[in-house]
Design a protein that fits this description.
The protein is an alpha/beta fold. Helices cover 31% and strands 19% of the residues. The chain has one helix at 2-68; strands spanning 85-86, 93-94, 105-108, 121-124, 137-144, 161-162, 188-189, 191-198, 204-211. It has a four-stranded mixed sheet with strand order 1-5-8-9, covered by helices on one side. A hairpin with a 5-residue loop joins β8 (191-198) and β9. The protein is elongated.
């Protein structure tokens, strides 16, 4: 009788151990499944992000084309809000559309009048471009990097300028620490292009480019 009781106890202990092992294996499988799912989600989000950044190139190219057609005239000396162009960079600008305590100006990327926020200036972006095959909505805004509109040579204005070297050099192909640089008398102003892209799964990307002409 005693022997049968010992066998029953041994079988009962083995069953408990087997159940514990099964529970541990099930928890491990669940953790592995969640890890794989999270990895796939991260990879998918990264792919959508990269696609949005690539889609921003069309906005940058359109903005550069718009600027190049007007670079030699006087149109760029004043704001053209309907085209998303501004001849000066306002202080307190938040390009993401999210206002904080120091924000004084926002870009109306969604044509919702910046949700009618009080205490901030709502500025227009360029008209929305045609939605591409992947479902990306692309818009841009251009700022001339100047303190105020008007001529960059005005006494009350200050602009970020590009200055290129000019003139032939007698030491072509050589490095010379004593060679002085000669600069062109006419400088060109920098323009900052900010492209906003909204794609599938609420993916949002901002890409900025500095150009001069």
């Amino acid at each position: 009788m005693t022997r049968h009781r010992r066998l029953a106890r041994a079988h009962g202990a083995g069953l408990i151990v087997a159940l514990v092992v099964l529970i541990v294996m099930a928890l491990g499988a669940l953790a592995l499944l969640r890890s794989v799912t999270t990895g796939l989600l991260i990879a998918g989000n990264f792919a959508f992000r990269e696609a949005a950044v690539l889609a921003a190139e069309s906005g940058s190219e359109a903005a550069i084309e718009w600027l190049s057609e007007r670079a030699t005239g006087a149109e760029l000396l004043a704001d053209q809000a309907d085209a998303g162009y501004y001849a000066s960079l306002p202080m307190g600008m938040n390009l993401t559309g999210q206002a904080d305590a120091d924000t004084t100006a926002l870009i109306d990327w969604d044509d919702d009048q910046c949700l009618h926020r009080t205490g901030v200036t709502c500025l227009s972006a360029a008209p929305a471009r045609a939605v591409d095959a992947a479902g990306h909505h692309v818009r841009y805004v251009i700022y001339r990097l100047c303190r105020s509109s008007g001529s960059p040579d005005a006494a009350n204005n200050s602009c970020l300028l590009f200055r290129s070297t000019a003139g032939a050099s007698s030491n072509r192909g050589q490095l010379s620490y004593g060679a002085s640089k000669r600069f062109q008398s006419s400088d060109t102003v920098y323009y900052r292009i900010t492209v906003h892209v909204r794609g599938p799964r609420h993916t949002t990307a901002f890409v900025q480019t500095l150009v001069h002409f």
